[in-house]
Design goal:
By secondary structure, this protein is an alpha+beta fold. Helix content is 27%, strand content 20%. Helix 6 runs antiparallel to helix 7 and helix 9 packs antiparallel against helix 10. The protein is elongated and about 80 Å long.
Length: 600
């Protein structure tokens, strides 16, 4: 069981500095969140009038705070998979190219002797032994003035070197605001929202996205100025660590698994072991993939004649006996024909290609085919010259997508019935795509499929979807400059470009009737809209560039749709076209497709 400890400090009253109004309350609310919602067992709390503990003062002066760091962190007392958080709300200062936190008796006239260097704090925190150390600083107040550079620059570099996740309330050149109407700091307000039920930001990455959106919004609303928080999480896999397991999604766990697999591939057994332990913790100890991975690592340690980690032995002893150490999906190969059309929709080229896939048995003769999608970098969005483009398809930006597997077809009614035991579709047919499925039902399907199969399935991110749809093309459609109803199921009364009008079928059709793209994916244009994991944003400013889903926006209830459908025009079927519906939307033009983590 993971150990979760924290230190929370909030200082309003200073001996030599301008008082603050809500720093104490910020720390108190953080303490309450960590204890009541995040499941932290022990929290050391320091504020202006915090009570003595064990006969010792908890007044946040320099002597008391240094004593805690010197005594508590004298030797490791935590292990891989454990968490230690440090939260500070108060004054901070940059002096002689070093960042300092100001205790209640900190004197700006004698900083080196009365303040506490942040690099000292980070170094002592790392001694605790936990692999997840989080430093949260709402201290960029430049001693109550707006002059000069505040803390952040040196601390950020220290965080990179120490592997400490550091969350700053604002940039070094900005001021961190307290909001009278909220009776809190703007940063801590957003932080607690993001970690709590409102944001459900289970990971560092998602919390970072939420803070970058919410803090500027609060400050703009109440102060009409700017404040931009930022997060340092290096190496990059630190950003995928799960901060609040209760809000972790299958996608969060899948990303963590990807990092763990990569660490194994790099033969970094210590890191891989830490990450698999975190996967297991996020899954409440019930993830068989993680258990198998930990066994696999222990086998490698044994082969290298390395000692096992004491923390691992109970996991191995309590896990299922006799599990094979290495288990891979046998990949098959299939051939298909890819066609390209000219501007009038006439087929101008045909070529044969092949792709790899694996097959899942869903029972009763129903299978699910998952196509291997190679990783790569592509330009996401539509160029200005593309006909019928919309503003929400810009700006163009480069996105690097890791390899993954994607459903060969949209989820069919037979597949949905096999997993969910129901079929909500209007247009019945086992091989037709399931429709009239809400976003939450699509997510539920992925969860139940994952439980049944023992691998992680989820909805695609928007970037994964467009990358997979384009399959290396840059034209409006993967067929070329246009489409026809001989190739795509859409409302043929409304063609694209110079293509002729065509058939309007007024319903879905069986999947796989038309030629696939170069990756071997069918019906990525038309037939049914496909849900993505992302929250809808009105453009790509600040969008992720690593293929991950964008999980915050102005309306977190609005979810992304791609592909176009049988009922809509040709231009809505373009590779770059984006739309959205509210999560509860249930339409006969909306279905979904699944992706799976690439295991090798």
């Amino acid at each position: 069981m993971a150990k979760n400890w924290a230190i929370a400090i909030g200082i309003n009253q200073y001996d030599y500095l301008q008082p603050l109004n809500y720093a104490k309350r910020d720390a108190l609310l953080m303490q309450e969140f960590l204890g009541n919602e995040a499941g932290f067992e022990r929290i050391f709390f320091f504020s202006d009038d915090s009570p003595n503990v064990g006969g010792k003062s908890t007044r946040p002066n320099r002597a008391n705070l240094r004593q805690v760091f010197l005594e508590l962190f004298n030797k490791p007392f935590m292990e891989a998979g454990d968490n230690f958080w440090f939260f500070f709300s108060g004054h901070g200062i940059r002096h002689a190219d070093r960042d300092y936190l100001m205790p209640c008796d900190g004197n700006p006239a004698d900083i080196e002797e009365t303040a506490i260097p942040i690099n000292f704090i980070a170094e002592r925190l790392r001694r605790c032994g936990a692999d997840n150390v989080v430093l949260i600083l709402d201290a960029c107040r430049s001693l109550g003035t707006r002059a000069g550079e505040g803390i952040g620059r040196q601390t950020a570099e220290e965080a990179r070197q120490q592997g400490v996740i550091s969350i700053f309330s604002c940039s070094p050149q900005q001021y961190s605001y307290e909001i009278e109407a909220l009776q809190q700091g703007a940063f801590t307000t957003a932080l607690l929202e993001g970690l709590g039920i409102q944001g459900k930001c289970a990971t560092v990455e998602r919390l970072d996205q939420y803070l970058k959106f919410r803090v500027p919004e609060l400050v703009r609303q109440h102060k009409n100025t700017k404040q931009t928080p930022y997060v340092i999480a290096e190496p990059v896999d630190k950003s995928h660590l799960i901060l609040v397991p209760r809000y972790a999604t299958l996608a969060d766990i899948a990303t963590l698994k990807n990092d763990a697999y990569q660490a194994e591939a790099d033969r970094n057994l210590d890191l891989a072991e830490q990450l698999w332990i975190r996967v297991l913790a996020a899954a409440s100890g019930q993830d068989t993939v993680a258990i198998k991975a930990i066994q696999r690592i222990e086998r490698l340690r044994w082969e290298r004649q390395e000692p096992s980690s004491p923390q691992i032995r109970p996991i191995i002893e309590n896990s299922t006996k006799g599990i094979s150490i290495v288990e891979k999906n046998p990949l098959k190969t299939f051939q298909f024909e890819v066609v390209t059309v000219d501007a009038q929709g006439n087929i101008s080229n045909r070529r044969n290609q092949e792709a790899k896939y694996f097959e899942e048995n869903l029972g009763n003769g129903v299978t699910l085919e998952m196509v291997q999608i190679p990783g790569g970098t592509f330009t996401m969005g539509s160029p200005e010259g593309e006909a019928e483009r919309r503003d929400n398809e810009s700006p163009l930006h480069q996105v690097t997508v890791p390899k993954f597997f994607m459903g060969k077809y949209a989820v069919t009614q037979a597949q949905y019935q096999a997993i969910m035991g129901s079929n909500p579709s209007r247009f019945k047919g086992e091989k037709r795509p399931v429709e009239q499925v809400t976003w939450d039902e699509a997510v539920e399907f992925c969860e139940k499929l994952s439980q049944k199969i023992g691998k992680t399935y989820r909805l695609p991110s928007e970037a994964e979807w467009e990358y997979a749809c384009r399959a290396g093309t840059t034209t409006p459609f993967y067929f070329g400059e246009t489409i026809t109803t001989d190739l795509v199921n859409y409302n043929g009364k409304y063609p694209y470009g110079s293509a002729p009008k065509g058939e309007y079928r007024q319903q879905t059709i069986d999947v796989g009737k038309f030629p696939p793209n170069s990756f071997g994916l069918y019906d990525m244009h038309g037939n049914v809209y496909e849900w993505c994991e992302d929250v809808y944003n009105g453009n790509y400013i600040d969008a992720p560039t690593d293929g991950k889903p964008w999980l915050v926006g102005s309306d977190n209830n609005a979810k992304l749709l791609r592909s176009g459908s049988w009922i809509y025009t040709a231009w809505t079927c373009r590779s770059a076209y984006r739309d959205c519906f509210a999560r509860p939307h249930r339409g006969n033009a909306v279905g979904f497709r699944v992706v799976a983590v690439a295991l090798a």
